[in-house]
Amino acid sequence: MTLTLTLTLTLTRRAALLAGAAALAAPATLRASPALDAVAAEAEALDQLHSFQVLRGGEVLTAIAPRGPGLDRVANIKSVSKTILALLTGIAIAEGDISGPDAKVLPLLGRAPTGDARDDLTVGHLLSMRTGLPSTSGGNYGAWASSPDWVDYVLDADPTGRPGTGFTYSTGGWHVLGAVLARATGRSLHVLASDWLADPLDIALPEWERDPQGRYLGGNQMALTPRALARIGEMVRLGGRWDGTQVVPEGWIETSWEPRARSPWSGDGYGYGWFVTRMDGVRAAYGRGYGGQVLAVVPEREMTLVITSDPNQPARTAGHFGDLMALMEAAVETQG
Prior knowledge:
Layout: H1 13-25, H2 32-45, E1 49-56, E2 59-64, E3 75-78, H3 80-94, H4 105-108, H5 123-128, H6 141-145, H7 150-155, H8 171-185, H9 189-201, E4 222-224, H10 226-237, E5 241-242, E6 245-246, H11 250-256, E7 261-262, E8 269-270, E9 275-279, E10 282-289, E11 293-298, E12 303-309, H12 320-334
Antiparallel strand pairs: 1-2, 1-12, 3-4, 5-6, 7-8, 8-9, 9-10, 10-11, 11-12
Helix pairs in contact: 1-2, 1-12, 2-12, 3-8, 3-9
């Protein structure tokens, strides 16, 4: 039997991704590879995309790098760093360095009470981006990054609301969280990430950007190879275990995937460092970074998906990132 994929000119690219995979996967006897090959071909056609990996049950089904540095050289994962930092926070809690998500931020940093809403700010509020503080991202990023103290810049700002209400995307809050982890453990964020994640998974984690005080940037600019990022995703998919070692507490992963807010752009839920959604009708969680960096885990299908893209080009929900979400949904559909 010869299968053909017919795409009309009226289909958008995102509709084409889903329609193409469905058309190829429809016969019950059809193996997944032709359908996934079609999805991979669509991935290659996305001019911002650098690499695309699909794993199922630990097996690499697709691993392509049509442009960019490739699968074995480091890529800036941008705000997927937030997802990594959330994993480190779970380990810090398990190690007893932080009491839990309800731990107050100001005392952890040795700062005096402010007498306002900032006194109620917790680690959980930082993890879920419900700080009640102004955003340092988007058009505010430059002013924050050029300030003399990135932590002070965030915590000295007048509150815009009560912690735990609303959702304000902000890298600054994650940098505060990184400072909390470093102070609570007495180790730099790079040392923590190396000891707690990179070493157990046998992956390399180079140093990355620091603030004027020498603290590693929390929530942005980490660099990993796409294959290393896929290994982190597989560890998460396996309940935090890797090679017989419990790297991240399994309960923390479940806690991190509980929606506590909602993205105003995509409408997806947001937990602790993970966006939560459904792909082909099943639960999925993903970290997302500027330009189109993605780490996604789909437990019911035993799948991990990793995408890297040009880190210097925007990736909006109505543009490249929307294409990536459709690409992933089409890949998940082939394994249904």
